[in-house]
Amino acid sequence: MRVVVAAGLMACLIGGGCKAAKEAARRELARQQEQADAAPVEPTGPTGPTAPTGPTAPTAPTEPAEPSAPPSAPGLRPGRYLVRAVGVSARPRKAMGLPWDVGSPPDLRVTIVVDGQPAGSCDGPSDQLIASCAPAIELELGVGTRLELRVVDRDLRNDDKVGDALAPDLLGAGHVDAKIALATSGQLASAWVELTPAPSKYVHYRDRIVALALGAVAGLGLVLGLRRRLVRIIELPIGPDDEWPCRFCAATNRGPVLVCHKCGGAR
Fold it and tell me: What pLDDT digit, counting tens, does each position of 174-219 carry?
């Protein structure tokens, strides 16, 4: 604006009139407008100018999320637990790139190892890369308990090792009735285990105990109901006119019989 005013004053002095000043101001405004149109405009965002964007680099594929427990699931505490289910998945080929079997996927077998000792095993379906089974074994979980899964491809002669899986700190990371992800090695792609509190020892004998109690009650009722019929009347060598008092109702009985004639109580 100062340049426009100065140009106008100079035109007035030199040209001797306002007409020349108006023409000079018009030309200056036109020149400034051309410069403003030619200057690059930087895009602005909510907080300021943004850098020019180039081609987006391809993102690496993400691994599937590990199974986790819902927020409401209680954590594991020291105690006895039942291994409700285990699940594993193998890679399509062996470490050297060879197929597991002749034209078919592996036949997975999972062995549960607790503190270095095999506790049980179960087999998945034949010719499948993914297997889950229910070993239904119990373990005592405490501080430092080591839970492992050893997976093989079961064959007629020699089983091919697939890989191992190691459970994390179950007391710190595990949850009841939820899939707990395990760290895998070898050709084992993923593995999980699900634990639930072990039932009481008396649960295994509950049916037998209930049946025995019902049988005892029924037998006792039968004996009490047939008590009079089950009492044998024994004749004693007592004279027909001998009297004896009943100890239950104090009635006087006569003769060698052993049953009171009034209440039926035995002598």
Answer: 788 888 999 999 999 999 999 988 887 666 667 778 888 888 888 8
Task: Give the C-alpha distances (Å, rounded to integers) separating 202 from 177, 199, 208.
Answer: 22, 8, 10
DSSP state of 266: B
Question: How far is it, in rounded angstroms, from Cα 112 to Cα 150?
Answer: 7
CB neighbourhood size of 6 (10 A): 12
Q: Determine if residue 239 is left, alpha or beta; phi over 0 gives left, psi from -120 to 50 gives alpha, anything else beta.
A: beta
Go through 20-42 and write b for each residue having 16 or more CB atoms within 10 A of its CB, e for each that does not.
bbeebbeebeeeeeeeeeeeeee
User: Which segments of 99-258 does DSSP mark as H helices, in order?
Assistant: 170-173, 206-225, 227-230
Residue with tokens 């007391």: 171
**Whole-angstrom Cα distance, residue 213 to residue 221?**
12
Q: Count the neighbouring beta carbons within 10 Å of the beta carbon of residue 177.
A: 13
Which stretches of 142-247 are assigned E, i.e. beta strand? 147-153, 160-166, 179-181, 183-184, 188-197, 243-245
* Eight-state DSSP code of residue 136: -
Band of residue 232 on the pLDDT scale cut at 50, 70, 90: low
